[in-house]
Task: inverse folding
């Protein structure tokens, strides 16, 4: 079973930066698509970014130009570089691994952006 562990969350002031990491177990990482989602209190889960196994990236409009998703297949790790953070970015951030019909979720890491 694939396990995903997010890290790198914390408290940061508006305009600051954080880099989230997600370490995955298993041998299918390199052929999987990877994504980040977030969920704020009282709100529905929101898709943030995705990177395909070939490296194609896409982002939600709310984070485009500020966030960058990347992957290191040698280390089974996906990253989310978050720059120019805004209070509305406050949420629990989850990474997701998708391989065919299989989808795996991590436990999440809290990001809090203060003004």
Result:
């Amino acid at each position: 079973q694939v396990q995903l562990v997010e890290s790198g969350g914390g408290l940061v002031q508006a305009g600051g930066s954080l880099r989230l990491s997600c370490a995955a177990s298993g041998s299918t990482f390199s052929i999987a698509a990877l994504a980040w989602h977030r969920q704020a209190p009282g709100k529905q889960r929101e898709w943030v970014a995705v990177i395909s196994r070939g490296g194609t990236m896409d982002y939600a409009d709310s984070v485009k130009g500020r966030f960058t998703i990347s992957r290191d297949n040698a280390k089974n790790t996906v990253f989310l570089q978050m720059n120019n953070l805004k209070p509305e970015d406050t949420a629990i951030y989850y990474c997701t691994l998708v391989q065919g019909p299989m989808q795996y979720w991590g436990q999440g890491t809290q990001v809090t952006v203060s003004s």
